[in-house]
């Protein structure tokens, strides 16, 4: 991220402003697609990370096999780009959302996750009514403990899916989000997850069930993915824009982060420290891995941690050189995806100039 350029480009704007250094984002997109190609993985960039048609378009142009979306609303928006496939790697439940997904499957190839036979039947019925077919994955819990299941549960689920007329069983997936649980050992946790999912796929295949696709997620596992050639695809989110969580697990360098929030110093209270005009409604309440800050400020003649948040303010308490009131600073958030969802628009900054773009899928559920 070119901090000077970003601060210059936003000098006349009211803050907080969400900024994407598009030159850096393009470099990150290229690196992600080269890494996937080198590991013979199909790449499904996760758009929840930026929520912008402009960036998803660049990811498809860089060779993505499809897009990953976290919600039906994101998928509806991204369908405008006619990607080869949209994958929703979490279960979709509730009559209204399932109906929307099935109707979308009429226009674009869709895959998603089913977690039990009852939900699979509901999805199958909706797909039949919409005259569509939906690809399904079953999800292994490799340690993140969200929607994934044990191998035993997946074996029984996979057996039942063969009876669905409008669902096609594509494969198995995991989201190994626990790689971000601690600063150290991310790659070991990623490797363990990859070994587990490949072994689970083998167990299910041994039942005579075809599972062609083995899909993993977390960007931080990228350096070791080549050692696991039986994975077939990766859903990379954070790799495009980066944030301090990626930096803390050594998956990216701070200079590779392409997203930040420009803020202004608004107060220097007598107790010490300073306050900026970006709080939880610009950065989100996501804490660092060790729970000791909400983001870091760069470009104020020093590096500062945001120690506390109010809705619209960020407080830096433990500071020696306090910047002056009115100083503009750039905040690198701990979680860019949660921060970007706080803004209707973001500024795309590049060496050729800058332009505002819509955060198209903001709030799209
Ligand atoms: C299901 C799923 N897949 C992939 C990703 C992308 O992970 P990352 O941002 O680490 O690349 C996420 C992120 O939350 C996710 O929930």
Q: Could you characterize the architecture of this molecule?
A:
There is one protein chain. With 365 residues, the chain is an alpha/beta fold. The chain folds into two domains: 3-19 and 251-356, D-serine dehydratase-like domain (Lyase, Ornithine Decarboxylase, Chain A, domain 1, Beta Barrel); 23-239, Alanine racemase (TIM Barrel, Alpha-Beta Barrel), CATH 3.20.20.10. The chain is built from eleven helices and 18 strands. The chain has helices at residues 3-9, 22-38, 53-61, 72-78, 95-104, 117-130, 151-161, 186-205, 244-248, 280-283, 336-340; strands at 17-21, 42-43, 67-68, 86-91, 110-113, 134-139, 167-173, 213-216, 233-234, 259-267, 274-276, 295-298, 304-305, 308-309, 314-316, 328-333, 345-350, 353-358. The strands form two sheets. Strands 1, 10, 11, 12, 13, 14, 15, 16, 17 and 18 form a ten-stranded mixed β-sheet that branches. A hairpin with a 5-residue loop joins strand 12 and strand 13 (304-305). Helix 5 crosses helix 6 (117-130). 49% of the residues are buried. The model has no long low-confidence stretch (mean pLDDT 96). Pyridoxal-5'-phosphate binds next to strand 4. The site of pyridoxal-5'-phosphate (PLP) has 15 residues, from strand 4.
């Amino acid at each position: 991220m070119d901090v000077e350029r970003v601060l210059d480009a936003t000098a006349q704007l009211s803050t907080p402003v969400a900024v994407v250094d598009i030159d850096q984002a393009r470099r990150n997109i290229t690196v992600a697609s080269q890494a996937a190609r080198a590991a013979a993985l199909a790449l499904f960039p996760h758009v929840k990370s930026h929520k912008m048609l402009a960036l998803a378009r660049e990811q498809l142009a860089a060779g993505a096999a499809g897009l990953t979306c976290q919600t039906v609303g994101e998928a509806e928006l991204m369908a405008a780009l006619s990607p080869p496939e949209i994958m929703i790697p979490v279960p979709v439940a509730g009559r209204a959302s399932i109906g929307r997904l099935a109707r979308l499957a009429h226009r674009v190839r869709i895959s998603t996750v089913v977690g039990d036979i009852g939900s699979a039947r509901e999805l199958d019925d909706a797909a039949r009514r919409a005259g569509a077919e939906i690809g399904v994955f079953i999800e292994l819990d490799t340690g993140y403990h969200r929607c994934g299941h044990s191998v035993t549960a997946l074996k029984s689920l996979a057996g039942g899916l063969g009876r669905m007329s409008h669902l096609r069983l594509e494969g198995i997936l995991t989201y190994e989000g626990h790689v971000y649980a601690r600063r150290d050992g991310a790659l070991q946790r990623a490797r363990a997850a990859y070994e587990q999912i490949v072994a689970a796929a083998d167990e299910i295949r041994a039942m005579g069930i075809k599972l062609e696709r083995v899909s993993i997620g977390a960007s931080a596992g990228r350096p070791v993915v080549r050692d696991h050639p039986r994975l077939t695809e990766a859903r990379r989110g954070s790799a495009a824009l980066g944030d301090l969580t990626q930096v803390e697990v050594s998956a990216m360098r701070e200079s590779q982060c392409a997203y930040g929030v420009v803020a202004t110093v608004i107060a220097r209270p007598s107790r010490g420290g300073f306050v900026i005009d970006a709080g939880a409604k610009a950065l989100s309440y996501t804490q660092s891995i060790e729970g000791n800050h909400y983001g870091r400020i760069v470009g104020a003649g020093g590096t500062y941690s945001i120690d506390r948040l109010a809705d619209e303010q960020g407080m830096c308490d433990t500071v020696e050189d306090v910047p002056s009131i009115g100083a503009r600073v750039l905040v690198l958030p701990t979680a860019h995806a949660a921060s970007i969802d706080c803004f209707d628009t973001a500024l795309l900054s590049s060496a050729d100039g800058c332009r505002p773009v819509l955060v198209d899928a903001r709030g799209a559920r």
